[in-house]
Amino acid sequence: MRELTYAEAIREALSEEMRRDDSVVFLGEDIGVYGGAFGVSRGMLEEFGPVRVRDTPISETAIVGCGVGAAMSGLRPVVEIMFSDFVAVAMDQIVNQAAKARFQFGGQFSVPMVIRTPSGSGTGAAEQHSQSLEAWFVHTPGIKVVTPSTPADAKGMLTTAIRDPNPVLFLEQKLLYRVKGEVPEGEYTIPFGKASVRREGRDVAVITYGRMVQRCLEAADAVAREGIEAEVVDLRSLAPLDRDAIVASAKKCGRVLIVHEACTTGGVGGEIAAIIADSEAFFWLDAPIRRLGGLDSPIPYNRTLEDTVVPRTAGIADALRGLARKGASWPRA
Amino acid sequence: MGIPAAKLKELFLKMSQTRHFEETAARLFTEGKVHGTAHFCIGEEATGVGVCSALAPEDLIAQTHRGHNQAIGKGMRLDRMMAEFLGKETGYCHGRGGCMHIADSSVGSLGANGIVGGGIPIAVGAAFAQQYRKLDAITVCFFGDGATNEGAFHEALNLASVWKLPILFVCVNNYYAMSTPLNRHMNISDIAVRAQSYGIRGKSLDGNDVISVYEATLEAKEYVRREGPMLLVLNTYRYMGHSKSDPQNYRTKEEVESWKKRDPLVLFRDRLLRDGICSAEELDALDGQALRDVAAAVEYAESSPEPRTDEVLRDVLAE
Ligand SMILES: Cc1ncc(C[n+]2csc(CCOP(=O)(O)OP(=O)(O)O)c2C)c(N)n1
Ligand SMILES: [Mg+2]
Questions:
Q1: What is the complex's ipTM, to 2 decimals?
Q2: Are A331 and A286 a contacting pair, CB within 8 Å?
Q3: Which pLDDT value is given to residue B99?
Q4: What CATH architecture does domain A196-325 belong to?
Q5: What's the gap in Å between B144 CA and the centre of ligand 2?
Q6: What is the pLDDT of residue A333?
Q7: Best residue in A42, A301, A304, A307 to probe B by mutation, most B CBs within 10 Å?
Q8: Could you say which of A29, A123, A300 has the minimum Cβ distance to residue B178?
Q9: For range B45-51, the mean pLDDT
Q10: Cβ contact B87–A302 (<8 Å)
Q11: Best exposed site among A128, B31, B106, B302 by fewest CB in 10 Å?
């Protein structure tokens, strides 16, 4: 199969949907001639013209709000927020408007809008350009939250997002933009709420998503040489969450490691742990559930410090070893 | 021109320092010594330097992401700025913030902001504190043309106006917000008219002429102290890309070249020579000093220690 980068896969999905459906419009800062801060929309202005690929002023509240109103009025806007940190500027339109419009008006409206935005650290862009804010929105009923970890998923899930009748926060992993992978030609969708098992194993279930999937796979390879077989589950969609896949993997392995880049406290990992503790998988657990998230810190500028605050492959491997050790089992009286 | 010769030389030195600082920083990037991005103000030196050199030490400033001229103008040290740029422990923010977040509370800097428009309401708060404490000082808030399209700008101007706060809003208009030209991100050509909607004074001027910038700031400062907020728009141009990754496919080389003919440093140099304030030798000596200052800053930064990883959580909250 041919290979595309994660960024190209996103561009392909968006372009295919714009060709198929003229109600799809694309708005954002510097998405036209510039092609977006990360080059995702390069060439799209040439194909679709300035009426459908619209550069906006620097006005995040108006950009998202315009998306909400246009979606309530029959369009399918895809809005780009240049860095996910800037969603904070548009928070009212996302949380109080987009996520509430259907419910509060008794189902009269739907808001088929996608907010595409790059998430995560690793580029030296420091505190205000590096955060992983997914938990805020997972905690907001009325909006879906997805974050693909491969080019193929990026394409299929963006297509799903555009066709979804609800607001979708589509979190792109900025460090994955240049990563290549096989991507099918033509239109296809990947349903939300379905995790993907990236690696089968029987000893420890690793539940993760986003850029951490790659690190978890590397860590799983490292400990496999020591006889520990980790299973790596890529959630892909955070709201809705694939409860069945989480519970099944936890039951199968009896030991669970949850890994995400976002700060640990108040993160999605807590929800995943609660789902397991609240399910029949509880009776299969051989060790306490472990969470390995980012430190509870803003993302620093200095490269070494920046690396220190998010989970690294070596740290994930250590956590896997710790969990797999006999001593980590329940102390049985 | 009633400005003392010593002040004029200070302006020239600071503008030269800014130019050399940024040219050097850009070189460190290409040498792979910097992780991250930077926004250079080459071509805009007269704005930040001219405004900040007219302020007193106790006046406050809030800088932008493109604010090395603002920082140097307010008296920040080149060595600690360069150390921050290289992410070192001796940097102003101990390597936590980088050049997009340089701050120095000791010279009245409230910090540079990575969120476009994010600093404007903060500056209003600082001016509120000055008014509340009955201080003589004022706050100067820098932002770009693009930032005036954020809600934060409009809310902040209105609040400052209603409360008559001692704040000078300074819009550094370089005619672009990243790739988007002014005439495509707003429907007016003179940003100063935005002041009218909030009942405050607005004034636009040539931001490449450091003397007019300096004099306008002195005058604005007195006005702001007496009457409350004012908006000063400084028209200028950035020569380099928006940030290090900018393909610059949205403007022509001719446009950039035409602005370089009105280079703020060349204009000022010519003026100082013409008015007989400085000789060419004196100006060359100042420029040479600026170069040496920047070289010393690089040496300081490069020989400085990295931050310790076990102290990464140090300033998440105050004790
Ligand atoms: C809230 C927010 N939106 C977008 C950005 C990305 N961004 C950084 S600088 C910039 C352009 C700012 O233009 P202007 O205010 O004119 O300042 P200039 O860069 O020209 O100095 C943009 C879009 C940001 N940092 N913060
Ligand atoms: Mg600008």
A1: 0.96
A2: no
A3: 85
A4: 3-Layer(aba) Sandwich (3.40)
A5: 5
A6: 43
A7: A301
A8: A29
A9: 98
A10: yes
A11: B31
